[in-house]
Amino acid sequence: MIVTAAELFKVAYGRFAVGAYNINNMEQTHGLFRGAIQSQSPFVIQISRGARKYADKRMLEAMIRAAETIYPDAVFVVHLDHGDEATCYDCIDSGFYSSVMIDASHEPFEKNVEITRRVVERAHAKGVSVEAELGMLGGVEEDIKVEDGHACLTDPDQAKEFVQLTGCDSLACAIGTSHGAYKFKGRQSIHFDVLEKIQQRLPGFPLVMHGSSSVPQSEIMRINAAGGKLDPSACGVNDDEYLPAAKLGVTKINIDTDGRLVWTRVHREYFRDHPEDFDFRGPGRVFMTEYANFIASRSEKLGSKNTLSEVRAAILEQRKNKAA
Ligand code: G3H
Ligand code: 13P
Ligand code: ZN
């Protein structure tokens, strides 16, 4: 069942966070749906502009629609990750996406408001939810690289003003995390003080945490032991901090890099251990199982495990009340 982010976040707010996972191919899609069902958890499946270019947006839509019939119990949001204005409109008009992110966070405040406001109008007319971003995370996202030192944390007072002016449904905040496998540069960690201030100014309003992969050292070591050359200084978010962040209003936690690490580890180890093999289905099967287990482990850390039937019932109730 495809739901909007607004519907799902109403149920999750203050209790648990929903994992948002980027997909680019069939193996990730199967692994994600399986892991979510295994852990009885709702989720956000998110598609970046890069993924739409890589796989073709029609291929991704067809794959997700197929997954919906293969895994009929799944409850999920179909979301555009880090969209620009034109891609947001394409997704809104497609009738397939139930949520889009307009990322104009690199623009000055007024321009960010102006662009976001336009996207909100178009999206809400079609019942699509909108995530916007204020503040700047470090690291690389799509074609924009934010150098260390240029990243800036979200200003809590501006966050309130931004939400009031734009009418967005959720807000991605910069609270110390960054995209990719090299976060924090030795400094810890999520800025809970900033998060708390944002929540005080926007009580009940869903917040989003990007750059939330945990980058397990064990994955880095296994990848390097199997021929990889990842910098051992790789570092991620402490996954025991997901739930405390959720209690402070973070309802969506974005995880992409960790899935790439699982993929890389599985494929490097597989071909190291089966040097005579050249059938991609061997490592593909292992990856789908490992990725499903990884997703299930995230559901536990996010607090979303075993919430599926309650979430489905609550959203059906919301829809009934809205129709009445
Ligand atoms: O924030 C970026 C996400 O990790 C998606 O990455 O643009 O390489 O698909 P991508
Ligand atoms: P990670 O790079 O930490 O997985 O973050 C992904 C993300 O924020 C996608 O929007
Ligand atoms: Zn992101």
TrEMBL record:
This is Fructose-bisphosphate aldolase. GO terms for molecular function: aldehyde-lyase activity; zinc ion binding. The keyword Cytoplasm does not apply. CDD domains: TBP_aldolase_IIB. SUPFAM superfamilies: Aldolase (SSF51569). Its cofactor is Zn(2+). GO terms for biological process: carbohydrate metabolic process. Keywords: Metal-binding, Zinc. Pfam families: F_bP_aldolase (PF01116). Dihydroxyacetone phosphate binds at residues 180, 211-213, 254-257. The keyword Metal-binding applies. The active site is at residue 81. Zn(2+) 1 binds at residues 82, 179, 210. InterPro entries: Aldolase_TIM, Class_II_FBP_aldolase, FBA_II. It comes from Methylacidiphilum caldifontis. Binds 2 Zn(2+) ions per subunit. One is catalytic and the other provides a structural contribution. Zn(2+) 2 binds at residues 103, 133.
